[in-house]
Amino acid sequence: MRRTAFVAALLFAAMPALAGDLTLEQVMANPDWIGHPVESPYWSVGGHHLYYALKRDGDSVRDLYRVDAANGTGAKLDPAAMAQADGPAVFDRSHTHAAFILHGDVFLVDLASGRRVQVTRSPQAESSPQFSADGRTLQFRDANDWYDYDLASGVVSPAAILKFADDPQARKPDALERRQLRLFSTLRELKADRDAQQAH
Q1: Is residue 151 a contact partner of residue 137, using CB atoms and an 8 Å limit?
Q2: What residues have CB less than 8 Å from 96, skipping those under 6 apart?
Q3: Domain count across the chain
Q4: pTM for the complete prediction?
Q5: pLDDT (tens digit, 9 = 90+) per residue, 28-67?
Q6: Among 10, 80, 85, 187, which residue's beta carbon has the most beta carbons within 10 A?
Q7: What is the separation of C-alpha 155 from the centre of its chain, rounded to a whole number of angstroms?
């Protein structure tokens, strides 16, 4: 015990000498040595687990971790466990259903039975799940479009398909009109020059 305390005291005393003339820029050139903060923590749908992401050393990849709320044990999830994980959930008003996005797809959970349904399986990433006020549909976003998932029938239908385009009523000038506009512009400039010279 005394030997450990002595070695720790020696290392602490030697730290300024070991650091030398390091600048803040050199120290922060690779912040991995500091350690990574926990990112995006959230509870599982049933509240039995806490999930969070942690950046890998020397990489931009984030690993998903799960902590058991009962005993506090945590572990990094392997691909098989990640496929069964929950995402950050939203709940309907009656608290009978929950929905979340995982790996870009929408999932629905019946809270009474624990039954989990994958609502979408698409290459594009869905987002923003929410339940309708009456609790009969689950709504989610795909890019700029919104879709409804009917909980009773299991049918997905478009709710709002947004299209961004120029006003179709706004008539664009044809080639002759564009040429005339350029000509008028040139004539205005010539007249302005003549008026300026005459005033001078």
Answers
A1: yes
A2: 110, 111, 112, 135
A3: 2
A4: 0.60
A5: 666 666 677 778 888 888 888 899 998 887 777 888 999 9
A6: 85
A7: 26
